[in-house]
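Form 12-C: Joint structure prediction
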Amino acid sequence: MKLAVKAVPYRALQKTTTLLISAVFIASIGIGIPVGPPQFLLVAVGSFLLSLGYEVAYYRRFEYQLTDDTLDIRSGVFNRREREIPYGRVQNVDISRNIFQRLVGLSKLDIETAGGGSTEASLRYVTAFEAKRLQLDIRRYKRGESPESHAEGATVADPDLDRDRAVDDEELLFEIAPSELALAGILSFDPRVPGALIALFTGSVPFISPIIPFDAPPLIVFGLLAVLFAAGLVLAWIVGAISAIVNYWGFRLTRSEGELRYERGLLQRYSGTIPFDKIQAITITDNPLKRRAGYATLVVETAGYAPGQTDGRGSEAAVPIGSRDRVDRLADEISSIEEPTFNRPPKRIRRRYLVRYLLAIAGLTGLLYAGLTVFDLANEMPWYLPVVAALGTPLAAHYKWLHRGYWLGEDHLVTRNGFWSRETKQVAYYRIQTVIETRTIFQRRWSVATVIADTAGSLSILGTGAAAVDIDHQDATRLRETLTERFRTALAERRWDRQRPTAFEWTGTTEERPDSTGESGNGQDVDQSHIDRSDDSPSDVDRSDDDSPSRK
Amino acid sequence: MNDLHPRIRVIWILRAVVVAVVVGAVGVGMATFFDVSQLPPVGFAVLLVIVGVIHAILRYRNWAYVVREDAIYLERGVFTQVRTEVPLVRIQHVDSRRSAFERLVGLASTVVYTAGSRGADVTIPGLTPADADALRRRLKGLVIESDGEDAV
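Section 2 - Result
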């Protein structure tokens, strides 16, 4: 099948615009070539025609097809590539449409598998309807059904009927309320814009210095700097609020057989599916303010996204903020677990945290003093200000200890960490990749250790994964062994499940066995994400098992 | 539990020496340039070598691994002691590799990759090339046996 015809002029225009923007940028810096309106027009038309030609070729040479077990894509104008993605390997199927694409009725479809550092298949662009159909059909193929209306090149007979089919079995799990959206906006900061401004202005233009009279009394300078800092914060807040509202506008999570679906976005619309059996971990985050107001954040981690992709958001299925009970209910729907009772680290560890905080404050004060001394301001500036924070350290140390803990559920390990932003993480035993026990030289002094249950999730690269931090070293060894043991049991159970007659597996699994939502579907997991063939490779044979599984 | 090959210490010490020589050379260069005594950078380099030797010895002493029926278990680390369990079903692929230093002393390493985010690759250094190959083959066999359905 082909991409949408409308995609050809759209892509050409897109390319030309990018080109022109960079051309204008280069011209504004000044390269000595006179650029007037006629030349500009010439460049614009020329590059448009060129890219149009390329895009026509791209369109003609791009073909995709849903076969019985794989999604095949043949693409490439100069370098040809043939890619086959088995349905069982597909982790997420994402559709996104920005405002222009919505005007002309185009969608971008991205397919993620666990391997590799980037999106495995990206269809740019197909019609909005085709994108929905593909998403749905991939899901059906994954379950082993054969969609009635697939067939090569066949047009769907009755679009309305098909659209109904797309929403038939969906159950709404979460829909963002206007108040929650507003809160998400209020609580969002985006430091990137003020950061960029600072970088831009302090670097090239003397921006800060003319505003601040450095010959004025130091306290005034201090005050002015504080005002500038506050202005930066407000800017970060406004930008963050706008972007959060635009991003999460109309956020919905729904469940259809074996899959989680999300939809969100005001200007750019995102939607996608995540199979339940590809969910790696669930993280619920809150802080004292959110707790007081009864709100929390939830993130569903999958293995599909490479780090640094999708603007570092990591997961698409993230509830930015929702009332606590709704978030809990949602977490329960996704992976039902009992109410955890956390095992805390030993109390003695609070002293360690206290010392650590005090050292940090001392270090900060020292730095400030040293910095001010260099500028000869130490006598006039309140360099000792950070010391005030020391008053709060016993409380912080206590809460850090209080919030730490792990709990072994029937099917899940639950860990909790963080003194301000408290993060609760649920990892099914079956999802564990490796179990790591570490003891730093300081931890050994307190005879404690950290146990980490590593998963193939995407957030873990920034965070710590599901970690039971600073537990007694004997507990740690026991926990490590227990986790390995429970993983083994979970694996065996799962294999046994897989061997049962297939009809059993995906008829109403979710209703009958609420604790096993993750096991519906065909349970095919991944070590090999896709098969690539390209004309460069010496043989036309599938490059098989040993070289294509790539790690994350 | 298996120990590493004792000769691995030579590699680690060699690496420490290389670092010390580079640091020392830069230090001596700077000392010459600013016309100050060359003794401190030389002393620092010597100190680095001593620390490197002690570190290599301790590191060797703390390193142990074992391939169990269904998992690889490793213990290592001087300052931070780490114990890792890698279930065999989670292995994505296995490399055996030899760096220039390793070839010099006739050793090899085996690297085990998983889909995890933190302990994504686990290196077992200090094997004889034959051992490394044997380990890789054995792991490959075990991994194929566990049919790869559960790798992520």
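Section 3 - Comments
Residues 2-60 of chain B form one domain. The mean pLDDT of chain B is 87.
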